[in-house]
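Students often ask why inverse folding is considered easier than folding. One informal answer: many sequences map to the same fold, so there is more than one right answer. In these notes we will look at a single instance of the problem. The structure comes first.
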């Protein structure tokens, strides 16, 4: 257990598989500051554990994650300390970078929904396994903000520019089969079976020699992600800019009211 909201456990063979669980099922595993800090810490701990050969990220209960908790937006928007607002707003990007940089192959086991910032984090992993009843949903425009946290270049890499725009602008839910066809998901399983498939993949990785696997991952990531920072460096500034836009703020207020109903 890294903290109360991010659980780290280890599985056979010989504790070579690390399982990281978002542990706020009563809140659809929404991403608070504590969750983001826990994910950053977990990535650091696992990255330096030479015994671990594969990593699985999942959500407790029947929902992977509903994305950034609105408390993060409010903290970034209302904090009088600009530096603190920037620090809070940058945490999501830090999570993505930390998980993408892990030497071990990583797998997201997704049940229910993977929404907004949670999708951004899942895309920083090497593979995504979705239950057939699950969906991916980028809802940021409806709450008057950009799709940040380094998500756009990763989404573009996976599905291409046209579909990346469809997903991040039109704010529609995309079912698992569609995600598979588009390249966002790598496998679709029966509902409730994503961890079984992720464990199967992890066990296959554990049967392989560690060094060449990790070198191949590093080489592919270096090529695929070479421009990511250059194209997403202003994500935080764009978020803060959105908070100054009257129309965007009105959409956010309307969306929050509809959720509370």
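Output (designed amino acids):
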């Amino acid at each position: 257990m890294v903290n109360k909201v991010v659980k780290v456990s280890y599985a056979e063979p010989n504790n070579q598989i690390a399982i990281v669980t978002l542990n706020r099922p009563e809140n659809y595993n929404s991403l608070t500051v504590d969750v983001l800090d826990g994910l950053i810490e977990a990535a650091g701990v696992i990255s330096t554990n030479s015994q671990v050969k594969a990593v699985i990220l999942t959500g407790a209960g029947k929902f992977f994650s509903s994305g950034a908790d609105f408390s993060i937006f409010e903290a970034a928007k209302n904090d009088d300390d600009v530096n603190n607002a920037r620090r809070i707003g940058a945490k999501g990007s830090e999570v993505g970078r930390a998980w993408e940089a892990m030497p071990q192959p990583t797998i997201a086991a997704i049940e229910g929904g993977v929404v907004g910032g949670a999708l951004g984090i899942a895309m920083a992993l090497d593979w995504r396994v979705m239950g057939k009843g699950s969906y991916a949903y980028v809802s940021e425009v409806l709450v008057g903000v950009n799709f940040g946290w380094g998500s756009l270049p990763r989404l573009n890499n996976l599905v291409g520019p046209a579909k990346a725009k469809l997903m991040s602008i039109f704010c529609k839910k995309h079912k698992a089969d569609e995600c598979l066809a588009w390249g966002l998901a790598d496998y679709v399983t029966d509902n409730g079976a994503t961890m079984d498939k992720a464990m199967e993949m992890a066990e296959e990785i554990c049967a392989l020699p560690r060094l060449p696997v990790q070198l191949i991952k590093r080489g592919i990531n270096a090529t695929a992600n070479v421009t990511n920072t250059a194209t997403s460096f202003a994500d935080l500034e764009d978020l803060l800019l959105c908070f100054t836009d009257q129309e965007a703020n009105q959409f956010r207020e309307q969306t929050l009211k509809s959720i509370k109903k």
